[in-house]
Amino acid sequence: MKRTFALPVAAALSALPSLGLAQEAATGEAAQHTQYILTSLLFLVGGFLVFWMAAGFAMLEAGLVRSKNVTMQLTKNMGLFSLAAIMYWLVGFNLMYPGEGWTITGLLGAFSPTSLEPVGLADTETDLSYASVGSDFFFQLMFCATTASIVSGTMAERVKLWPFLVFVIILTGFIYPIEASWQWGGGWLDARGFSDFAGSTLVHAAGGFAALAGAMVLGPRIGKYNKDGKVVPIPGSNLALATLGTFILWLGWFGFNGGSQLAMGTIGDVADVSRIFANTNMAAAAGAAAALGLTQVMFGKVDLTMTLNGALAGLVSITAEPLAPTLFQSLIIGGIGGVIVVFAVPMLDRMRIDDVVGAIPVHLIAGFWGTFIVAWTNSDASFGTQIIGFLSIGIFVFVVSYVFFTVIKSTIGLRVSEEEEINGLDMAELGMEAYPEFSKG
């Protein structure tokens, strides 16, 4: 009896170490599953917040153009987002994140459509250390579409629809994925230590450089500048829509910056996401407040459009490093972004560069400021490297965009006729108006 009893007991005791290892393995697997689930959720929530920015851009642009061009702006925003989604799936995502598929070292990856995991992850070995491919693709796509949205507003009121959309295909399928891969795809800028947390340069300044190229090739709107160089103000059609668009963009930016933490599997990650939210909000508020106060001092009255763009400039400024700064540092960074807009908008007018919505000051110039000042709060960055990264991406995007805009202009045409521009693009290009019951403005 004793021998019979002793054998199971001995077996049980000898199994205790392996049982502990099994429990430890199960605990580790559960933690890995939790990290995978929460990070994928962060990408999905962040992604649909950034998607909502598409509505923000549409409303902002619709409010800042004249009523005879509103339908055109709305159509362009629908078209550019849809084409961006297709192009980023078709070639952009794998160009941007080539992994082991590099075909030309340091520049391009495999030209192939994006593939998702099988349904339910059946019969596959999935890397649980990051997030699902579907959530990652969805999140990164929104950044690609944002880059194209920036170009739309600058070139408003005189560009043809289809030539503009042809450029969107080039921008979202090739230009943006290539330059973004230099940093986020583990390319040469990443190796040099360039730091751009959520895209002050890779997204916003890149869109601003493409917009600058387009504005230069396209030329200013009729009547924007007199022969003596005087600027003729052209008021927008609906400042209520423009304000709504700004608040929508402000909301979407929490997903833009917060989701770029790229992890939510630990309490440290969640704390960092909340810190990013707070810093992002502070920078936007400071940018708006700075523009509001400065326009009162400079012009004797507050300028609402400058205040709206001040908030957006504050958001762009903090995007390159929304995690490291304190709230006070975020206030300084965003506030200077707001000041930049107030001075940069008239500077562009003196250069006779017609930017309808002020996208170049907001996204390009404030994007440089935000990228440069990263080294102030992030000890891993250097001011010199930040400048090199900004200039490298800027030169690439501007030159390639300028070339393509020039080719489009000389082949299928880029700008509508003078008569069509005067009558409005809504009727000339689309045959419908946003406000048919009102007179054209």
Count all strands and give the number. Answer: 0
From the N-terminal CA to the C-terminal CA, the straight-line distance is: 102 Å
β-strand amount: under 5%
Q: Identify the CATH class.
A: Mainly Alpha
Q: What is the CATH H-level superfamily?
A: Ammonium transporter AmtB like domains
CATH topology: Ammonium transporter fold
Structural class: mainly alpha
Which of globular, elongated, flat, extended, rod-shaped describes the shape?
Answer: globular
Alpha carbon gyration radius: 25 Å
The percent range for helix content is over 70%
CATH architecture type: Orthogonal Bundle
SSE string, helix = H, strand = E? HHHHHHHHHHHHHHH
What do these coordinates show?
By secondary structure, the chain is mainly alpha-helical. The protein has a single domain, classed as Ammonium transporter fold (Orthogonal Bundle), CATH 1.10.3430. It contains 15 helices and no strands. It has helices spanning 2-64, 70-96, 133-154, 161-181, 188-192, 200-218, 239-258, 267-299, 304-319, 327-350, 359-372, 374-377, 383-411, 418-423, 425-430. Helix 1 runs antiparallel to helix 7 (239-258), helix 2 packs parallel to helix 4 (161-181) and helix 9 (304-319) packs across helix 10 (327-350). Residues 1-13 and 105-109 have low confidence and may be disordered.
